[in-house]
């Protein structure tokens, strides 16, 4: 059983790795001995974050607008030029759009769907040759980042976000059965409330934070170690026989009455 949760020496790709939970996961892998590629659209911010994370291990920035299949292909080619295989692909890049039903714009819907679900499917498709080195006892891993709002009604006018995150959960289950014979597991994490750029409006408003904490039985926001620990488990031998599942990481929010 020794080394069951060891990820040292693994090569990991994290999309949306320049901030928020993507950066939290990237740091967790680096601190545990993995080599990490981070991808994001804003090249300058991405390079700054990669330099910052390089204090903990080898971190390489791959700028890419993942809403475009051609950009995904270019990013994969860059990664392939740097490494023959990867062990873990974390699809974390995400976008949100809030607007009342009557005014909700097509541009907002398309932006969210392109990043939150289309990019996951095509990133997996293009990355498959790099994920080919998995073994039955230690498969290659795909970890998709969904949301608790893909499981419940958030009560917010973020219709495309909720729909896209529900799609992530279902796509995870669908792909897991197809890729199992390739020695690739596909699981998802559905995070609750973490401090990030996407949740800035909530976490910067003390009244909204208090209201949110009232609905979280464990009484706090998610921490970097919470999301890093869950992703490390899904990338380790400890989860080698687990696929098609969504781990809800929300301090009990969705279990609360």
Report on this structure.
The structure is a single chain. With 257 residues, the protein is α/β, with parallel strands linked by helices. It has a single domain, classed as 3-Layer(aba) Sandwich (Rossmann fold). Helix content is 41%, strand content 15%. It has eight helices and seven strands, in the order βαβαβαβαβαβαααβ. A seven-stranded parallel sheet has the order 3-2-1-4-5-6-7, with helices on both faces. The longest helix has 22 residues. The N and C termini lie far apart (38 Å). The mean pLDDT is 95.
Work out the helicity level. 40-55%
Quickly count the domains: 1
Strand content: 5-15%
Can you identify the CATH class?
Alpha Beta
Number of helices: 8
Straight-line N-to-C gap = 38 Å
* Widest sheet, order of strands: 3-2-1-4-5-6-7
The rounded Rg comes to 17 Å
* Anisotropy-based shape: globular
Structural class: alpha/beta
CATH superfamily: NAD(P)-binding Rossmann-like Domain
